[in-house]
Amino acid sequence: MAQKPSIPKGTRDFGPQEMARRNYIFDTIRSVYAQYGFQQIETPAMENLSTLMGKYGEEGDKLLFKILDSGDFLRGVDPSAFCEGGTPKLAACICEKGLRYDLTVPFARFVVQHRDELTLPFRRFQIQPVWRADRPQKGRYREFYQCDADVVGSDSLLNEVELMQIIDEVFHRFGIRVCIKINNRKILTGIAEMIGQADKIVDITVAIDKLDKIGLDAVNAELAENGIPAEAIERLQPIIKLSGSNKEKLQTMREVLKDSEMGLKGCDEVEFVLNKYALVTAPSLTGRVGGGSALQLDLTLARGLNYYTGCIFEVKALDVEIGSITGGGRYDNLTGIFGMPGLSGVGISFGADRIYDVLNQLDLYPKEVSTTTELLFVNFGDAEAAYSLPAVAAARRSGIRTEIYSDAAKMKKQMAYANARAIPFVAIAGETEMAAGKFTLKDMITGEQLVVSTDELIAKVQS
Known about the structure:
This protein is an alpha+beta fold and about 475 residues long. It has two domains: about 15-45 and about 100-360, BirA Bifunctional Protein, domain 2; about 370-460, Rossmann fold (3-Layer(aba) Sandwich). It has helices spanning about 15-35, 50, 55-60, 85-95, 105-115, 160-175, 185-195, 200-210, 210-215, 215-225, 230-240, 245-255, 260-280, 285, 350-360, 380-395, 410-420, 430-435, 455-460, and strands spanning about 40, 45-50, 65-70, 95-100, 120-130, 145-150, 180-185, 295, 310-315, 325-330, 345-350, 375, 400-405, 425-430, 440-445, 450. The longest helix has 20 residues, at about 15-35. The radius of gyration is 28 Å and the shape is elongated.
């Protein structure tokens, strides 16, 4: 008995309707990126593990899909590798490549490799799949698309402001209400200094970044497990629970971080972005009631990736329970790990798969997105098909998505096909229509039928 086919957990098939919807997402994001002057690139699905390892922190390294070397990958491997050092040591012996975990690290590699070909600042966007060996759950997949935009070669915080505008514009076009959360890794560093745990900044940020997922008690327990003293954890609580307006939070943090030069610099950067974003998203400029999407300072936002150094961002949908649907931040020296130090960058990434789920739950797709073929020509036989083919070609030249039924078949079967495909118009040519040089055009929604010429048929469908 043949084995029933299946796909790996955390992956999905997409049929024609799903692909039409996904392309709507990609096309919308792509058009906004282009509007802001970003240029598209692509990088390979595989990268050398030396490019990927060590860039995402210890937890990220565990989630990398590693690819076995081709051929006899065990040849020459020291048997002790199976016993000593565990999986990481063995993987280093038999795997040279891995699937990309995100698009940012491959982009940093791209910039260094092609540095002589690029004009700085370089504004790039990239829409491709990434892979993570994560536990599949609602809104979390092992294979998913990211839609990234980055600016490298510029220290200006205006780049952060423009990226916030892009986020606002994309979700406005989708009709999704969102809150854009902002924080700064310099503020987090200042907090770690303030509680006397500067050397534990990574452990602190990784833990508090999970606050929304696991709750305050579990975060505190994780901090304790990572060696953070109880006194330091206690001093952290008012910051984690801090509420109020953006202005009030910043004022409080300036007082808390008054002895931290790094922390105060982070406050300055956040204040700059908040103020400039407010200028460009006022109702008078956006033409929207209430202006642009809310930009909210969230001191628990940490973005667990180690390469962030400045402002960090995360976007939450307001009307659907799901994880972040966009994220990003400033990384001042990511290319330094590839031998090109001092090149600053900042970027965002839209999670296309989560956006897809949100649009599905809220039923926000435009009606035309689900429409594939707009006009079907019925096929009664060779003579009728030959008569219809010039009109089929004319309709396509006019931009109408058109097909002719492939096989000569009964009218009932062809109409059932049109209904199943939700094709709105059907053109029929029998002996009577052919003698008059006309077609009968049926509106499948209203049932209305008209006898028309080819030009009239095209005009009717287009209208």
